[in-house]
Amino acid sequence: MKASIGSFTIFIVALSLNLTIQSHASETRPATQSASSAFKKITKAPKVDKSVDSHSDGSHVTATPSTQEKKESKEATGPIEKPVVTSQPAPGSGKTKETKDADAKKGHGSGHEIAKSIAADQSLRWLMNGNVRFTGRKLRADGRGADDRQRLIAGQHPHAIVLSCSDSRVPPETVFDQALGEIFVIRVAGEALDSSVIASVEYAVEHLGSRLLVVMGHTKCGAVDTALKVKEGTSAGSPDLDKLLADIRPRLSSISTDKLSPNLEVESTVNADGVARDLLKRSEIVRKKVDAGDLVIKPALYRLDSGKVTFY
Asked: Per-residue confidence at 25, pLDDT binned at 50, 70, 90?
């Protein structure tokens, strides 16, 4: 199936950046739908899942969030699948061999499963919940121990792919509170696309079974700022830097440099969205996966000041 990428309009509502662009909406979408309709308008947030938290030993505990935690949960930029807990035990800690083996099959204590078919919406909720934990300073304690390293020797099945900027202030594993083996991360300045980046995405999509691809930009992105300031035909200092800016610049062609948004929020979001769309054009593997309903692409923006991630 050939996918055609048509023109699109980005809606910017005030400074809240409600760029209402959504990737492939449902896994029940007919396979005949083309990748050109993979990004659809979000009309409302998904419902909140109020289920209890699950620990690595299979037991359940009902978390009672504090007033501050409730406030932070309400401010989250997505649905909160489960209440936030302070910490969770690492798989295999103080357990018998039988429960250790069960943990190794199950995955980490937040309920993730080591599987090739984690649904994109489930994966997205895990990332959203992890970002709530990150901003609320309630980070997980599991998934990083010796048992986890041993479990992952056999292979990896990350539930999501994250393509993000290489800026040192935006490490995806940290801002999403994800542990070893849980997300496949590709980092490059300005989320720029070249053959190595695209090949890395294709590898994860084709061979690791990930069904969610997040393209995450961030506020005050230096690569975006430079692409706007260094005009075409002017060198940024080296042939390699020029190539990087040449990839980013076309995605910002609709931006007026006369009046940029605070912290480059709009510009960075437009760039991340453009990367998501360009991947559909430049990768047949990605395009076919989206067409078949096997992959969802979500542009996102990380805000340096609040630590919150907004998905579009």
From this structure: very low
Rounded Cα distance between 246 and 254, Å, is: 15
Place of tokens 């805000």: 303
Residue 91, classed as helix, strand or coil, is coil
Neighbours of 32 (CB within 10 A): 8
| Residue 169: C-alpha distances to residues 16, 41, 94, 162, 220 (Å) | 22, 30, 35, 15, 11
Q: Cite the DSSP H helix spans in the chain.
A: 67-74, 97-106, 120-135, 146-151, 172-175, 195-207, 222-229, 239-248, 265-282, 284-291
pLDDT at 116: 54
Q: Count CB atoms within 10 A of the CB of residue 264.
A: 21
**Residue range 77-88: mean pLDDT, rounded:** 37
Longest Cα–Cα distance of the chain, Å, equals: 65
CB distance 215 to 298 below 8 Å: yes
Q: What is the pLDDT of residue 34?
A: 43
At what angle are helices 120-135 and 67-74 packed, to 10 degrees?
Answer: 130
Q: Rounded distance, CA 98 to CA 112, Å? A: 19
Give the tens place of pLDDT for each residue, 177-201.
999 999 999 999 999 999 999 999 9
* 51 Cβ neighbours under 8 A, 6+ residues apart: 81, 82
Task: Give burial (CB, 10 Å; 0-12/13-18/19+) of 286.
Answer: buried
Quote the radius of gyration of the chain (alpha carbons, Å). Answer: 20
Q: What is the pLDDT of residue 117?
A: 72
Taking a C-beta distance cutoff of 8 angstroms, is the pair 295, 37 a contact? no
Coil, strand or helix: which one is 292? coil
